[in-house]
């Protein structure tokens, strides 16, 4: 599974739509197997969605995100968990341990409702069109 987190000063960026950097982590069997940080090209929202799709991202964990951006990502079968804050490593650990719903990871004003935006089907790799993507 590939997870992307927009970053600012080693923390989750407050708004994905304008973030300049992103951490991409590969997770297998509950362990981070690879992690890198990249610069996000400064471009349209559609190009941002394409950028994540080209990198075969499965999940975007972010702070704020526009509804338009969520819709674009869902077209690419990228699940979005928004309203998240914290340092990158803690957030990754929280995702792996299924504890991101803990209030310590919630941005102020986010009560946990509506934070998960799912594309396609249930579970890993079950979204529309996922069967043909090479990992």
Question: What's the arrangement of secondary structure elements?
Answer:
Blueprint: E1 2-8, E2 11-12, E3 21-28, E4 31-39, H1 45-54, E5 59-61, H2 67-75, E6 79-81, H3 88-96, E7 116-117
Parallel strand pairs: 1-5, 5-6
Antiparallel strand pairs: 1-2, 1-3, 3-4, 6-7
Helix pairs in contact: 1-2
Helical percent range? 10-25%
Shape descriptor reads globular
The SSE string, one letter per element, is EEEEHEHEHE
Number of helices: 3
Name given to the CATH architecture:
2-Layer Sandwich
Query: Over all CA atoms, what is the radius of gyration?
Result: 14 Å
Give the CATH H-level superfamily: Dinitrogenase iron-molybdenum cofactor biosynthesis domain
Indicate the CATH topology.
Nucleotidyltransferase, domain 5
* Strand content bin: 25-35%
| Sheet/helix structural class | alpha/beta
**Mean residue pLDDT:** 83
Low-confidence stretches: 119-135
Number of domains: 1
Compute the separation of the termini in Å. Answer: 9 Å
Features:
alpha/beta, 3 helices, Nucleotidyltransferase, domain 5
Quick overview:
With 135 residues, the chain is an alpha/beta fold. Helix content is 21%, strand content 25%.
Structure characterization notes:
The chain is α/β, with parallel strands linked by helices. It has a single domain, classed as Nucleotidyltransferase, domain 5 (2-Layer Sandwich). It has three helices and seven strands, in the order ββββαβαβαβ. Strands 1, 2, 3, 4, 5, 6 and 7 form a seven-stranded mixed β-sheet that branches. β3 (21-28) and β4 (31-39) form a beta hairpin. The longest helix is centred in the middle third of the chain and has 10 residues, at 45-54. The protein is globular, with a radius of gyration of 14 Å.
